[in-house]
Design brief:
Aldehyde Dehydrogenase, Chain A, domain 1; 3 domains; oxidoreductase; alpha/beta; 6-stranded mixed β-sheet; globular; Aldehyde Dehydrogenase, Chain A, domain 2; 508 residues
Amino acid sequence: MATIELPSFKHTPLDDIASTTSQLRASFLSHKTRPLEFRIQQLRKLYWALKDNEALISEACKRDLGKPSFETYLVEISWCMNDCVFMANNLKRFAKDEKPQDIPMTNMLMGPRIRKDPLGTALIIGAYNFPFQLSVGPLIGAIAAGCTAVVKPSESAPYAAAVLEKVLAESLDPSCYTVIQGAIPETTALLDQKWDKIFYTGSEHVGKIIAKKAAETLTPITLELGGRNPAIITKHADPKLAAKRLLWAKTLNAGQVCVSQNCTFIDREMVPAFIREMQNALNEFYPNGARASPDYGRIVNERQFARLKKMLDSTNGRIVVGGTMDESDLFIEPTVVQVDSISDPLVADESFGPILPILPVTDLDEAIRIANSVHDTPLGTYAFGTKAEMEKILNQTRSGGASLNDGFFHASIPTMPFGGVGTSGQGAYRGKASFDVFTHRRSVTTTPSWIEGLLDVRYPPYSLKKQKKFAGMNEIKPNFDRSGRSIGWGGWLLGLLGVKGLVVLLGK
């Protein structure tokens, strides 16, 4: 098979960053991106560029991450192509003026509406684990909203970053959308520019740096971060089903997934069966072993490999499944480790790799308590048990999203909002949320000239008569008493009319 030639990764000159940003801002202020037809055309052209470069994208992800071609198609190529089509087909509906709800009758005369205005010029900083999905995905939302944008891919996936630059250059208007390549110096220079929106995907540590920098200019941000995501398995769960689904969630992209479980809190009675089913599932997924399988990826670089190896070396837990690794190949086998403390490095820190610690617990209440103490706002929570037990987990934990009886399925549905909460992030995208996250909802009213007679209540000089008139026009009567109890329509009518009004109504 002929070797596929990929474009080379080249750092953007630091001196070009300010001028590039200025050009994109000028394009936005020229209103070039405002027409919906322009946005739709850009989305359609991006779709075909992704389609035409499938082989390059697949090869780039293989070289950067050892990513199987099936995974690349599943979570990179088709993911982004579907988003392009979905957004292009629904953009006119999303961008249409919206009628606000529950507007008082007197205010309806001013024709209140909510416009969908683009925020402006956006900076999108992607991550290495899904180099196309996490760069192109937000960009699709920025295009649809009418923003201009700079995309900064991760330098840790250089082949994908170079191919991404090629794809965008071939398909999108270069005066509105561009790629800037580099590492910390280039990212720092980008953050020194003025932006109307910053969208960052990556670690909590870097997210704090970006949030602090954005606060200096009051720039709105969306942060898609990671998290020490808990899985909880009760004694009533199906161990075979839980093992198979959680193993899949930890072997996709060799565990380099922000929503995969970081630790599984499992009822002590279930531990032997769960470990046995984990081994069975591993043999089923990779009959000749994970290392020999074309369906299992690699760790992105030596630095991340060393970090994961250090975590395994420092754990007090016992490896019960897997455990082999090879630095020369950046290979780490899916590894199940039974730990006995929440202070264990595999529980206290996010592994972001194919390591699956399990911590036996006495019961569901203990599992929930530990999950909340380890990380109270993870990106995802995964519950296995009865319907009532899973509902209890939802009621007593917090997370950006949750998948019941599965591993991170909620994050795979393209039309559902995806995002974190607290230390796992803020803001959401995917589907309509991708449009919303780059959009300002602008409230607009139009006051007709003929209504001036009704507006005299707002002009000085003020009087008690004007105040009563205003109250009659705008005051909403409560349907509850002073204790906060509902009083029903009869009590509400009594409060509205008063005692005298009721006497008149009854003809007394």
